[in-house]
């Protein structure tokens, strides 16, 4: 009986040793392999993200010249200073080139528009001319070197006794400046906190 138990006990001891070796050596290695696979997947995701960022930076570098041109164009269209005399000269020249004999402009106080991040200069305009002269003037406003937008326009007959009908035009034009404090007496330049009125 004792001889029959010896192989069983030896087998149990060997199984116990193997189980102990499995628990002490193999299971930690399996856990380490699983963790390494997780780190590898994380590294692959990070590599993909970095590759996309690198390509975007290379693309931006390749297009830097175009971006600079666009920035300069926007700076011309939306200057850092309100330059009231300059904008009045632009509007008078547009009216003159369109053939409008009578044109008056009233420049309002610039107001900061937080949604646009710009100061808006509202200009009221009154003029008399033919339909085509007024149309030419409005086209000139769209093609000014400064960004401008006609926000209101009314036309009414002025003189229909002649061979060509003359119309009276009243309207509002918006121009812009990147100076957040463009009001009277303000310090020119972009400011962090726009003034609520004239400084």
Can you characterise this structure?
This protein has 199 residues and is of the alpha+beta class. The chain has two domains: 1-62; 78-177, Ribosomal protein S6/Translation elongation factor EF1B (Alpha-Beta Plaits, 2-Layer Sandwich), CATH 3.30.70. The chain contains four helices and five strands; from the N terminus they run αααβββαββ. Helix 3 runs antiparallel to helix 4. It is rod-shaped and about 135 Å long.
Layout of helices and strands:
Layout: H1 2-62, H2 64-77, H3 84-98, E1 102-107, E2 111-113, E3 118-129, H4 131-142, E4 148-159, E5 166-177
Antiparallel strand pairs: 1-3, 2-3, 3-5, 4-5
Helix pairs in contact: 3-4
Rg value:
38 Å
Summed up, the domain count is 2
Strand content: 15-25%
Element-by-element helix/strand order: HHHEEEHEE
Class per helix and strand makeup: alpha+beta
Q: Give the full name of the CATH homologous superfamily of the largest domain.
A: Ribosomal protein S6/Translation elongation factor EF1B
CATH structural class of the largest domain: Alpha Beta
Number of discrete helical segments: 4
Spatial shape: rod-shaped
């Amino acid at each position: 009986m004792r001889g029959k138990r010896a192989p069983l006990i030896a087998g149990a001891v060997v199984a116990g040793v193997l189980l102990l070796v499995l628990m002490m050596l193999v299971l930690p290695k399996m856990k380490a392999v699983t963790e390494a696979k997780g780190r590898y997947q994380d590294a692959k995701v990070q590599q993909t993200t970095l590759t996309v960022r690198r390509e975007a930076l290379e693309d931006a570098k390749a297009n830097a010249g175009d971006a600079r041109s666009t920035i300069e164009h926007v700076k011309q269209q939306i200057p850092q200073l309100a330059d009231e005399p300059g904008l009045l000269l632009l509007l008078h020249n547009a009216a003159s080139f369109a053939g409008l004999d009578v044109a008056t402009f009233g420049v309002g106080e610039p107001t900061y528009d937080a949604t646009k991040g710009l100061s808006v200069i509202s200009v009221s305009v009154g003029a008399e001319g033919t339909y085509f002269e007024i149309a030419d003037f409005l086209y000139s406003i769209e093609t000014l070197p400064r960004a401008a937008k006609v926000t209101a326009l009314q036309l009414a007959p002025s003189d229909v006794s002649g061979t060509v009908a003359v119309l009276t035009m009243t309207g509002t034009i918006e121009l812009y400046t990147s100076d957040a404090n463009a009001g009277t007496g303000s310090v020119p330049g972009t400011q962090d906190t726009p003034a609520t009125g004239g400084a």
